[in-house]
Amino acid sequence: MLTIGMGALLLLIGYFLGLYFGSAIVGLVIAILVWSVLSLVGYFQGDSLLLTMSRAKKIKRDDHPRLYNVVEEMKIASGLEKMPNIYIIDDPALNAFATGRDPNRASVAITSGLLQKLNRDELQGVIAHEISHVKNRDVLLMAMCSILLGTIVLLAWYGSRFLIFGSMTGSRRSSSSGGGGQAQIVILVVALVFMILAPIMAQFIYFAISRKREYLADASAALYTRYPEGLASALEKLGTSTGQLKSANKATAPMYIINPFRKKGMKASDLSSTHPPISERIRILRAMAGASFNDYDQAYRQVHHGGTGVIPAASIAAGTVPLATVKLEGEAGEPNEIQRARETSDVMWRLSNYNTITCDCGAKLRVPPKFKEPRIKCPHCGRTHPV
Amino acid sequence: MVAVYIIVGVVVVLLILFLIIYNGLVKRRNQVKNSWAQIDVQLKRRHDLIPNLVETAKGYMKHERETLESVTNARNLAQQLSSAGAGERAKAEGELSSVLSRLLAVVENYPDLKANQNFLALQEELASTENKISFSRQYYNDSVLRYNNQTQMFPSNIVASMTGFKASEFFEVTLAAEREAPKVSFTQ
Questions:
Q1: I want to staple A309 with a disulfide (CB 3.0 to 4.6 A). Which of A43, A291, A297, A350 is the partner?
Q2: Is 0.85 exceeded by the ipTM?
Q3: Is the CB of B31 inside 8 Å of chain A's CB atoms?
Q4: How many Cβ pairs within 8 Å bridge chains A and B?
Q5: pLDDT over 70 for what percent of chain A?
Q6: Distance between CA A329 and CA A227 in Å, rounded?
Q7: Which residues on chain A are in Cβ contact (under 8 Å) with B139?
Q8: B110-124 burial by CB neighbour count: b if 16+ within 10 A, else e?
Q9: Chain A CA closest to residue B139
Q10: Is the CB of B139 less than 8 angstroms away from the CB of A326?
Q11: B131-184: pLDDT as tens digits
């Protein structure tokens, strides 16, 4: 619905612009043309740009079996056809995102900071959330919407300038002359006001769409894992972190799991935020009685004390789906936080092509890829090792 | 004359709707079939993992011969029954699951084995495979639900009954022992 609203805004701008040029149809066509060109560019450029910007490193199964397995499990649970590419971002901040214009060409990225903080259940919740963005085509939707927004802003900017200059020079080429003078001024004023307001309205709609898709992704994650508590406790850990992600920017913010631009202490649901507040998301997840969309919707309404739900009606099937009561994997073999920190650090060194030599004294020597000498001396105990 | 055009128009629209619904049913039914095959893939993967696991454990767990043997036997039986009926298979696979969790419980008493990198990697693979079996069953049930909804809800039920699409069965856990999945506690 919201997307339709945004589209309508674009068409209205085109219409008003067209009025100036004497034909409303021309204006509409121009608006649609600009939007199409920008969309095509965005569509084909999309993901590689985002991944390069965040300096993400692609991993194979052997690089990090646990992460790979978790993603593969979620791929099975969600019914994706192809395994998504998995990337690790070298950043202590806690965040994750998904990208990919269609489910067969998806990528999931996670920061090394988050990878070492979360246990398996929490990691699975986060990955499920990201994969559901891919499955629900949110990446495509948000990209289209942001281009829509850009086009609206662009046209509104030019449109308002044309209208102002046009009325100042006093030369009008409009089809009706003479008696229609007063009506023309009214239309002019309305058009101008609209040109100024449209970008603002479009922005609010854009943020509202983004927030709604986040709720849907949370609900999908609960459905895939049958264990909303996993995502809930992951969000808890994420909520208490305040580190800003170095490489995020405003255009890519909606795809991250939490708002990379949140300021400390921001509580109420900001109209200008791409994500709903974390505490609210956690409360909804923990209030779920089952794992289906219906249960999420009911939990949402419970937390908001009545009112409309947040899941599109077409997705809700009647009845609930039971939660996983017994955890599928025991604690055996799962690393604790210190082990995870060491494991993640090992992986990051390896991905940067560093060689690791373990000295007998216990020190780990990280040899850079460009190291030319045949032997290296341990700085701790002095033993030499062949490289 | 106009009446004829209207009737033709309505018929065309109905035909298109019929085709759309029919295609949707076909897609869903194929999804059900495909997800059933996926369960097989994961079960086979588990069969392939186990010999390696047993070999690695053997060197360290010299006094657990019976446990290791029961694992190997259960695995061989399950593999033999791969082409048997669903009921027998479910039983064999369920048996394998419970024997495996017994083994993993016993592993707790062997810190050397727990520290072995190979064994840790295998354990992760095994745990992940168990999860994947679960999730592929879950996805199968989800697919069946979507397909059944389509065959039973209006208006697609009309198309379904006309073209012979019937509801599918859920993968119910019939084995009581498997239904209460073994809860292994490691607090000692």
A1: A297
A2: no
A3: yes
A4: 65
A5: 76
A6: 13
A7: 76-79
A8: beebeebeebbbbbb
A9: A77
A10: no
A11: 899 899 889 988 888 888 888 888 888 888 888 888 888 876 544 444 444 444
